[in-house]
Amino acid sequence: MSIRCKAAVAWAAGEALVIEEVELSPPQPLEIRIKVVCTSLCRSDLTAWLSQAQPQIFPRIFGHEASGIVESVGEGVTEFELGDHVLTLFSGECMRCRPCASRKSNICHTLGLERQGLMHSDKKTRFSLKGKPIYHYCAVSSFSEYTVVHSGCAVKISPVAPLDKICLLSCGVAAGLGAAWKVANISEGSTVVIFGLGTVGLSVAQGAKLRGASRIIGIDTNPEKSERAKAFGVTDFLNPNDHDQPIQQVISGITDDGADYAFECVGDTGMITVALQSCCAGWGLTVTLGVPKEKPDISAHYGLFLSGRTLTGSLFGGWKPKSDLPSLVDMYLKKEIEIDSYITHNLMFEDINEAFELMREGKCLRCVIHMPK
């Protein structure tokens, strides 16, 4: 049956979210309905909320980094039962398409990034208000007491994992760790430079530290991030505003002509070129993880590539979400990876707009939003 629940609705780009009572359809075939327990604000939520690019898909419910409990299942669902603890997945895994069948990619052709505010299966919405549709975000929409997702866009996890912490593995922390481990495959003793020291960048730093990188250089224009970054493994903090030379020249000067690995975690395509120029000739690898807010095209001199540098992208750290995330949860439970320190604020659902302001002002890493019990 349909249910009524509270959700934080964005009525227009950049406008404060409004807590509304909305109607949520029952799960359709191969879908599940989840009672959201905790959800955290990711910068991509903020970017999409501010963007004027798709005014036609408002009103909208954002949120994609979440943990919860299965409330009901649709026809044909066999892997989930009522009461299962799950993480939501902004990019799913159907297990059947060519990329899912290969170990070479995690870009599912069936359940990949959904950009039109609809569900994958029937291109409709599950939320409505007074008979009118409310659009989804990444086919998750976790800024709601309950949500419906495709069963391929959720993963069952250990019931002993704390849902108020583990929700961060649904996106940001896993994305950074995977970029360091699966995509770049950082080697022991190497030099790493990271542009942008938010949750994703600091997760790259943690991954580099655990791989035994000898030097981890963090780049950010916010001087307040310096001390926090060191806790995650950053050995050198550089603020571009403190230097007369371009930052890529500074990096080259202190790393014997460039780092082994460079990670762009800002979401600025101009910074991708800077990152390329910051890694060494011959084998330097640049990984881009950020979501650009504007100017999606990349410009770089061909000589950077001719001299042996490589540029690659990383979506969700290369992890196959349903296949790989349970192992990360187990690593957390064994205290092999750190998650708790990324949580700088815990807020109640009714204070969700405060989370957006904190992120806009650069005053938080992750705000975990606790849903009503």
Automatic annotation (TrEMBL):
SMART domains membership: PKS_ER
Keywords annotated in UniProt: Metal-binding, NAD, Oxidoreductase, Zinc
UniProt cofactor(s): Zn(2+)
InterPro entries assigned: ADH-like_C, ADH-like_N, ADH_Zn_CS, ER, GroES-like_sf, NAD(P)-bd_dom_sf
Pfam families: ADH_N (PF08240), ADH_zinc_N (PF00107)
Entry GO MF terms: metal ion binding; oxidoreductase activity
Residue ranges occupied by any Enoyl reductase (ER) domain in the UniProt entry: 14-369
The family this protein is said to belong to: Belongs to the zinc-containing alcohol dehydrogenase family. Class-III subfamily.
Assembly behavior: Homodimer.
Name this protein carries in UniProt: Alcohol dehydrogenase-like 6 isoform X1
Lineage of source species: Eukaryota, Viridiplantae, Streptophyta, Embryophyta, Tracheophyta
